[in-house]
Amino acid sequence: MRRSRSILPLILPLIMGGFPLWAGQVRVGIWEGLPETWDWSRPSANPTDTYDAPCFGFVQLPTRINSRGIEVDRVTPYAIQAGTTVDLPAGTYRLILRAKGAAQVLVDGKVIVETPPISPNSAGHEPVPDPTPPEDVRWREVAAGDQERITNWVCDGKTHEIELWAILGAKKLRPETGELSVSIVKPGGVPILIGGSDQQSLTHDGWPAYAESEHARIDKIDTVRRRQAQHSVADEWRIRHEIARAEASQTFPSDGVISSLGLIDRRIRASLSQHGLKIKPAIDDAAFLRRLSLDTIGVPPTPEEVIAFVVDQSPDKRSRLVDRRLADPRWADGWMGYWQDVLAENPGILKPTLNNTGPFRRFMYLAFLDGMPFDRFVTELVRMDGSKLGGGPAGFGMATQNDAPMAAKAHVLAKAFLAADMKCARCHDAPAHPFDQTQLFGIAGLLAGKAQEIPLASTVKMQPGGRQPAVSVSLHAGDKVESGFDLGDLAPTDLPEGMLPAGASSRERLAALIVSPRNPRFARVIVNRIWARFLGMGLVEPVDDWDGSAGMSVSHPELLDDLAREFLSSGYDIKHVTRLIFNSDIYQAGAVNPPPLGASAEERRFAGPVRRRLSAEQLVDSLFTAAGKSFASEDLCVDPEGRRPSTEMLNLGAPTRAWQFASTANERDRPALSLPITQTFVDLMQTFGWRPSRQDPITVREETITPLQPALIANGVVANRAIRLSDDSAFTALAICTASPEDLIRQVYLRVLSRVPNENEFVRMLAHLDKTFTDRIVLGAPLNMKRKPVRRVSWSNHLDARATEIQLVEEKEARAGDPPTYRLKPEFRERMEDILWSLVNSPEFVFIP
Amino acid sequence: MSIEAITRRDLLRWGALGLGSSVVAPALAVPPPRVTGKADACIMLWLGGGASQVDTFDPKGRGDGKKEAGCYYDAIPTAIQDVKICEHLERTASRLDRCILVRSLFHNVVDEHAAATNLLHTGRPVSGTVTYPSLGSIVSHERGAEGQGVPAYVVIGYPNVSRGPGFLGSKYGYVYLTDTESGPSGLTPPPDIATNRRARRDVLVESLRSDFEAKNPSDTSIRDYAIAGRDAARLAGPAFMSAFDLGREAATVRASYGGEFGQRCLLARRLVERGVRFVEVAHNLNFLNGTGWDTHNQGQLRQHELIRELDHALSGLIDDLGRVGRLDSTLIVVATEFGRPPEFDSGGGRGHQWQAFSGLLAGGGLKTGQVIGSTDEHCKKIAERPISIPDFHATIYSALGINPSKDLDAGGRPVPITDHGKAIAELFV
Questions:
Q1: Which residues of B touch A696 (CB under 8 A)?
Q2: Residues 324-363 of B with CB under 8 A from A
Q3: Using CA atoms, how far apart are residues A152 and A149, in angstroms rounded to an integer?
Q4: Model ipTM?
Q5: Nearest CA to B373 among B387, B388, B355?
Q6: Over 60: is that where the pLDDT of A2 sits?
Q7: 3-state SS assignment for residue A683
């Protein structure tokens, strides 16, 4: 592992030829809340935070958390300080400082090089800076918006203290590290990051590898700290879960059979047999592995996993696989798109538009990564604490340009967790639902902690001469609504004793009322959501609206309550309910057609799961997993320089999973603000039902099949990058290393479709390769990899005409996709790409088995 | 006399005849008879950034780019008597008899590009509970594509929510492209895929497709996707895709449209000819002057190049649609999110003004050669005949034979196409 260090740093110089010598770890301190005019004078207080780093290279700092493990923002401006001692042979060295904003490097307490502070920019009229190639072609280019200062440093061969100070964030500046680093160059050498015993170099390959390992290392520090903090409130939650366990069998009385084993199939079989029907036969092992993998980790299995699973003879291999998949950290990725939709997570990267929230995707991701019990997840969400624009649940509390943000949140929460659709109640008493405006604004009041006033825009406008509204209006603009949770029979308002500590806030009270084990609605809604997600159709439909005029339509009421009871007594454990589903015969059965639109409960019989198409996220992740490529998209940010505050422009980083993309729309039509590679992903995902902008909550995406969907896989940039045999493609490696064309076809099928080809397919695909396999390799061919130029266009200069010219070139390059490898002859490469193209364009690829 | 036939004039006459005001007042609420046009397609030129009405279609006074407020250019006479427009709109000026100037557009979306752009596209302020559909999506929903195997709605510009289908659903969304040369992404095969390679790929995928269908004989989702895949191949086929081959136009025709924006307009004509119902052409390639139409500060200095490009493209489009006999059936709309004040900012450019700005309509079988509304002497306030955005949209819908007060279904909730918009009646024959 990259971050492990030798315990004998002193003998390293001998091994490394005497250069360089660092005295072990780099100690880092962070001081928060410095004055805006801080003058580098050493803070007298202790640092807010300290940690160890491998060297003077910073891509991410540990996140600050509160006592419950919720991430909070550091108070800006803050300074980071890193120090170590160096022991270098006498000589003259180049010392390189790279920083976004103001930073200083000191040797033995004396400043030897520094970068100046940067200023905010809102106008966008600066000139685009000229490219600044590094001093030596082997060095990594200076990153977008970073500054570089180099100095000569004469070392006398003695031990010296080296120290780095850097300021992050300020009024109207986002606190971002950029590629903050200090490195040192021996004449003729490449820059080596100061500190640590691993030699980390500031080269084209060295820095990205270091950055990746450092991101992973800091994530680990964060996880350890977060889980420790969560542990400190574990008792409180253990008590609540005991209460829930005790209440579960009262809220959902069982009919005698207590074992959760086989519970699902017993109920399903009982109802099917009434119609003389049976559960469809189970799908084969390979198909099951693919279905389960897509449903849990969001990507297909690896070829090795398919083979190992198919040859495994043990009778419990399916349930062991279920356990493995549920324990996989990618389980969190698999849920993200769903909750982003349901909770209307809607961060905007360019100035607030309607209903932008903070990027609380991070809070959700960490909650699923940590296996946070679901009642606690809801409670933290409703508390709206922590970081607002940096990913905490406070971001859920935002709704920009909305004159009643808490009413908007009350609507989201009621729909998500109680399947109570109060959308219409925003402006009038809902005609088709049993909700009036007072109920919605009452919940809003609990969230706001005070009585809510009805804004003018949340009323029904009466036009002179216009028709009479068909709805009843009981409130008017300016009317005040008292806080309160009153949904009538839908949810009780008494809580079991001991559920809430004295002095709980109105938000905590609201959260408790939602998740209360006495509230049968919550547990039913959540287990129904899980069921519908994996079986393609709810036990109750519509999943997020149970009170419409048509009434609630439940196909298997006993099963619904069995699962709800299991959910409560497991301590609100999503994984427990999911495990029951995955281990059932009904989940493992062959897929069936969806029932007709608006089918009655009677018609929803479940002889097998309903056929599901891959979600947009699963599609993109599957394509790139199969190809073994990274998205290589831009950072989701139009201000890489960091010269606008987070309130106006966010930097959501470069996505590694498809759920991390965000809207690129800015309604400005300015090419200079485009993110060309990101746009190709947004185009594909949007066509497959993903919403780049989530102004309102939904549960079921638009599923209409349109010709544009297959068209985009056939012709679009993203899918064509996935099948392109470029030098970073796993398919290219496969084509070069595989001994026979038969084996190649087999491996390709395993990677793309998680199965081996049948006899016909073998014949057809081999015929397509048409003898090109034998002589496919070009010996000694160079790699054909293009390195992306550093982004020079940023908000500050996007109105310079050159910015548009640069971005138009970028768009062209993005459309061109990945360059083909030279190591395979074009005749072979094209034919193999044709095969890959046809596999990803076949319906088999886009449907869950 | 049936109630529908009662006109406003009748009512006034009855009032004059001595019928009490108590009778007249409620009766006045009867809507005027609906006007309707016969246009079959619409090309909307979108001047993103907020085009300065005082520097284009509503010149007032002569400013100096500093203290003295007013038009930055001279004004010239047009084909409509006593009506002047900016000197850089020379070609349009001589064709203004085929146009309608609307000089009294207004709204109250303050100073924000995204929100105002949304309003000009959907006709409604942003709402916390409903995502409204755009003009193009509503036209697509109401009239569909005119031709077989072509999309109803094409955007030549960047994708965004304002241009989207909102609650109507993705079926009424757009196909978009940002570059006339490469065609719409998703329908244009990668350039390195030669025809023969495409054919051999199609054979391969069809075998997989039909195998999979055969393996799942009664699966409707798989069947639908397989059908969509075959439709997609047709959509990406020559019938529609040939529209993007501007090289097939005579050099004189291409030249008559001018630069890249003009070529986009030429493409719009070719799309309309193939049965596309609504084409939006964005004009904000900001390398001409940096800022595009958002002419703050030094963006003003080279604004005339932008105006000239608009002039060239718009006049070219009017002429060319006339030449192919489609001007009467194709409505041209020139729209922008707001205008700009006559005063200059400290950098010599202009801020935003939403209280009064201009739009233009042309062709579409309307009674052209008219100017609707006017502004005060400084072009800051509307002097007469304010036209709201819903009214402007109602005029566009009516010209296309769409009832602007028809209810659409937003998930069970009735939402009229425009928010009480009324078409400008005198434009209809």
A1: 128-129, 131
A2: 347
A3: 10
A4: 0.90
A5: B387
A6: no
A7: helix
Q: Are residues B183 and B210 in the same domain?
A: no
Number of domains making up chain A: 2
Q: Which of B117, B188, B288 sits opposite A715 (nearest CB)?
A: B188
Residue B240 belongs to some domain of the structure: no
User: Which pLDDT value is given to residue A668?
Assistant: 78
**Hunting for tokens 């281990």 — which residue is that?**
A583
Domain boundary (A213, A229, A245) is at A229
Query: Same structural domain for residues B289 and B197?
Result: no
Tens digit of pLDDT for each residue in A221-238? 999 999 999 999 999 999
**Interface probe, candidates B119, B160, B289, B345, chain A, greatest A C-beta count within 10 A:** B160
Give buried/exposed letters for B78-102 (b at 16+ CB in 10 A, else e): bebeebbbbbbbebbbebbebbbbb
For residue B164, give both structure tokens: 């989207």
- CB count, 10 Å around CB of A529? 23
Q: Which of B198, B215, B235 is the C-terminal boundary of a domain?
A: B235
Nearest CA in chain B to A840: B205
- Walk across the sheet containing A110-115 and list its strands: A49-53, A26-31, A78-87, A159-168, A103-107, A110-115
* Cα–Cα distance, B4 to B33 (Å, whole number): 7
CB A792 within 8 A of CB A659: no
CB contact under 8 A, B158 and A695: no
Confidence of residue B111 (pLDDT cuts 50, 70, 90): low
The whole domain housing B22 covers: 1-33
Q: Is B154 helix (H, G, I), strand (E, B) or coil?
A: strand
Domain of residue A29, CATH code? 2.60.120.260
Rounded distance, CA B235 to CA B154, Å?
13
**Contact status, residue A642 vs residue A173, Cβ threshold 8 Å:** yes
- Cβ <8 Å between B129 and A432: no
Classify residue A766: in a domain, yes or no. yes
Shared-domain flag, residues B128 and B229: no
CB A719 within 8 A of CB B205: no
CA distance A141 to A133: 6
* Residue of chain B minimizing CA distance to A408: B128
Spatial separation of the C-alpha atoms in residues A237 and A376, rounded to whole Å: 8
Q: Of chain A residues 785-824, which have a CB less than 8 A from chain B?
A: 799-802, 804-805, 808, 811-812, 815, 817
Q: What is the total count of domains within chain B?
A: 3
